[in-house]
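F.,

This is the one I mentioned.
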C-alpha cells in the first residue's frame, strides 16, 4: 500500500516536471522541423546561440527552464536551438547542423548573440529578437511574432514597399533598433528626420530618434546636433550635445585606427578633430577613452597614468562604478606595485563616493591583499561580507576571505 501511495504521489510530480520549461527539438533536421510545424500549425522559434555568449547561457539556464516560459513557447512554437560557433567538444548532432548554422548566419543576418528567429508554419522568416531578457518581458517580445501587425519581417516588407510612409518609417526605426538591424534603422530614421522641420526635430519626443540616427559621424542627424547644440541641450535630459559628439568622434577615430592596425596618438587625434570640428571640445572624451584603450591593449602603466590625469581634471564627475572597474582591472591583470597602489587609491575614492558598498569593499580588500597588507585586507573583506543584503555574492566573498586567511592568491 505504501508503494502504491508513493507511486500516486510521484506521477503528478513527474507530469509537472515534464511540463516545465521550453521543449527544444532534438534529432530533427531543419526540413523535419518545418514539417512538424506545418503539421501542428505552429510557428518555429529558433535560438541562435554561441558557447561563449553570457546572455545565451543565462537564457538557457534561467529563463527557458521556467514553467511559464515553457507553457507559452511549447503551446505556440516548435522550438529549436542552433549553435552558431564550432568547438572541439561539439557532439555529432551539433556537427550535423554546422552547414545550416552558416546558412542561417548569412541568409538571416545573424550578427549578435543571442538572436532568436521566428518562422511561420511554412518556414518563412517573420520575426527576430536580438538579446535576451527576463521571463515576462521575453514572452512579450515573442508575442509580437504571432501578430502580422507586429512581426518584424512583415513590417520590414511594408517599409521596403513604401519607404516614404512616415508612420511606417517611425515604427520601422524603433523595431530595427530592437532587432539590431542597424542598416534598416539608419534608413528609416533618415526618412523620419527628412520629414521634420528643425523645430519639430528638437523636441523631447524626438531626442531618442535623433541620438540614434546621429551615431553615424557626419550624418544628417550628427550635423543637426553639431550645428544646433543649444536647441539640443534644451530638450535632452541625459546627455549634452558636446559630450555626445566628442565621445562619438573620439571612439570612432580610435576604433578606425585599431582596425587599420595604426598607432594611437591621442594628442594627434584631438588636434585632427579640432581642425575638422572646431566647435566640439574633445579633451574630456579623449581623457576618458585613454584608460579604456590602455586596458584593452594591456598597457597598465599607461592605464594608471591616463586615469590619474582624468581623475585630476574631472574627478567630481567620475562615478564610483567607473573607479571600481578601473581598480579591478589593475588588480586582476597587473603585479606592478605602483599600479596596484594607484588602483587602491581609486578604490578608496569609490568608497568615498559610495560608502559601505560591498562590491567596492571587496575590490579594496583584494588590492590591499595583493599589496601585502593582509590583516587590513581580511578586515575589509569581513566588512564587505557583513554588509551583503542578499546571498548572491556571499559564497564568492567568503571563498576570497578564506584564501586570504590561508595566504593563497585571490587572483588568477
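My design for it:
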Amino acid at each position: 500500500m505504501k508503494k502504491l501511495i508513493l507511486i500516486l504521489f510521484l506521477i503528478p510530480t513527474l507530469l509537472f516536471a515534464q511540463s516545465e520549461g521550453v521543449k527544444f527539438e532534438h534529432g530533427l533536421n531543419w526540413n523535419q522541423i518545418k514539417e512538424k510545424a506545418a503539421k501542428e500549425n505552429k510557428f518555429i522559434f529558433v535560438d541562435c546561440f554561441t558557447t561563449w555568449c553570457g546572455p545565451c547561457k543565462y537564457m538557457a539556464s534561467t529563463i527557458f527552464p521556467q514553467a511559464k516560459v515553457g507553457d507559452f513557447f511549447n503551446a505556440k512554437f516548435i522550438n529549436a536551438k542552433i549553435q552558431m560557433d564550432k568547438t572541439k567538444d561539439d557532439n555529432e548532432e551539433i556537427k550535423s547542423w554546422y552547414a545550416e548554422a552558416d546558412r542561417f548566419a548569412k541568409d538571416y543576418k545573424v550578427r549578435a548573440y543571442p538572436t532568436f528567429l521566428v518562422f511561420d508554419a511554412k518556414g518563412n522568416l517573420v520575426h527576430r529578437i536580438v538579446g535576451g531578457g527576463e521571463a515576462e518581458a521575453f514572452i512579450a517580445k515573442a508575442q509580437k511574432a504571432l501578430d502580422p501587425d507586429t512581426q518584424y519581417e512583415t513590417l520590414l516588407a511594408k517599409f521596403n514597399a513604401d519607404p516614404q510612409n512616415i508612420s511606417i518609417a517611425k515604427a520601422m526605426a524603433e523595431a530595427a533598433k530592437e532587432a539590431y538591424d542597424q542598416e534598416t534603422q539608419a534608413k528609416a530614421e533618415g526618412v523620419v528626420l527628412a520629414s521634420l522641420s528643425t523645430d519639430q526635430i528638437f523636441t523631447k519626443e524626438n531626442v531618442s530618434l535623433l541620438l540614434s540616427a546621429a551615431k553615424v559621424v557626419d550624418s544628417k542627424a550628427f550635423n543637426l546636433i553639431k550645428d544646433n547644440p543649444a536647441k539640443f541641450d534644451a530638450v535632452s535630459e541625459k546627455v549634452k550635445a558636446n559630450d555626445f559628439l566628442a565621445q562619438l568622434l573620439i571612439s570612432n577615430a580610435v576604433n578606425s585606427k585599431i582596425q587599420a592596425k595604426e598607432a594611437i596618438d591621442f594628442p594627434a587625434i584631438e588636434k585632427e578633430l579640432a581642425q575638422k570640428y572646431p566647435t566640439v571640445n574633445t579633451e574630456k572624451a579623449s581623457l576618458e577613452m585613454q584608460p579604456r584603450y590602455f586596458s584593452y591593449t594591456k598597457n597598465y602603466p599607461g592605464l594608471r597614468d591616463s586615469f590619474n590625469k582624468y581623475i585630476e581634471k574631472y574627478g567630481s564627475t567620475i562615478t564610483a562604478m567607473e573607479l571600481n572597474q578601473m581598480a579591478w582591472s589593475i588588480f586582476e591583470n597587473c603585479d606592478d606595485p605602483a599600479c596596484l597602489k594607484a588602483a587602491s587609491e581609486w578604490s578608496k575614492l569609490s568608497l568615498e563616493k559610495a560608502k559601505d558598498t560591498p562590491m567596492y569593499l571587496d575590490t579594496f580588500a583584494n588590492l590591499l591583499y595583493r599589496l601585502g597588507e593582509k590583516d587590513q585586507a581580511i578586515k575589509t573583506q569581513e566588512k564587505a561580507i557583513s554588509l551583503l543584503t542578499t546571498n548572491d555574492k556571499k559564497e564568492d566573498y567568503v571563498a576570497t576571505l578564506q584564501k586570504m586567511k590561508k595566504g593563497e592568491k585571490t587572483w588568477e
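Residues 1-19 have pLDDT under 50 and may be disordered.

Talk soon.
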